[in-house]
Fold:
Amino acid sequence: MKVVAVPSIPSKIARTLYSGADSVLNSLLDFRPELWGLPPFQDWVGKALPIEPWCLGGPVIKGFGRGSKVLGIPTANLPTAALGSQLSQHVCGIYLGWAGLSNRGVYKIVMSVGWNPFFDNAAKTVEPWLLHDFPDDFYGEELRLIVVGYIRPEANFSSLELLIERIHEDAEIAKAALDLLPFSSYQDDKFLTTPLAKQ
Structure:
């Protein structure tokens, strides 16, 4: 019998307790039965897994010093302190969804949820990349997000070039998947266009 373990307390220390398992995953979202000789799940859509949608939002703040400057990828960052309890409910990884930005419109996003080195691994952060070319910055504007799909777990990369390549690959997956049901049905959700204060 093969054993796949998903620790109830996902941490580097906890993983050592499961060294007898054939594989240790951070979440059942990452379980791929075809890797174990079983029939694959049929619920993946366009290389993404539909999930129970979750919403978050807040004013756009200056970034963590790696998106635009290091990676050349402009992320629209949200205040971490206000989102801490909400983010703790979701596994680290790469997600896709929709973003409503003040009066500008609704846009596709690919988004990372994880432990940002800017915070010395003390706080989980969310970094959405709005898949649209904006002519100017929009710091301080209200950003509303609906996260509707999961792409992959966080991963380590041996070079910055490989990381950037994978982020762009994630973006292409998000762009294509968000044109498909059920992901596309959330583009018109009222949460994206209704200010948070009026919810």
